[in-house]
Write a structure and sequence with these properties.
This protein is α+β, with helices and mostly antiparallel strands. 16% of the residues lie in helices and 28% in strands. The longest helix has 9 residues, at 86-94.
Length: 109
């Protein structure tokens, strides 16, 4: 798994959601590619673009917060985008929400 570029996210679309915290996402995926100040004009202010070992691209992002960003330890429902639906399972697995193989493990609600 590695961070990808914004160009790699072209033509991705919503595939699912994950409820977790910003800090857990940073622990699993590193710092986001995009992290700008909350804005009432921007639809996305935090975004990761990840390329998994099998070349699957996943994006994790806030969507239409319009001036709101979750606190680092606040549970938040993040959007998961990709070219394929498998992006959702790969993100959740890396977070330890499916098989418990991520950097930490928690039971999904």
């Amino acid at each position: 798994m590695q961070q990808a570029t914004k160009l790699d996210a072209n033509y991705t679309c919503l595939k699912g959601h994950v409820k977790t915290t910003f800090n857990k996402l940073v622990k699993a995926f590193g710092e986001p590619l995009v992290h700008i100040a909350p804005s009432e004009m921007e639809k996305v202010t935090i975004e990761w673009v990840i390329r998994f070992g099998d070349s699957t691209i996943a994006t994790i992002y806030d969507w239409k917060g319009y001036g709101y960003q979750p606190a680092p330890d606040e549970e938040y429902e993040w959007h998961i985008g990709g070219h394929e639906a498998s992006a959702v399972a790969l993100v959740k697995d890396q977070l330890g929400l499916i098989y418990g193989t991520g950097p930490f493990f928690e039971m999904a609600n």
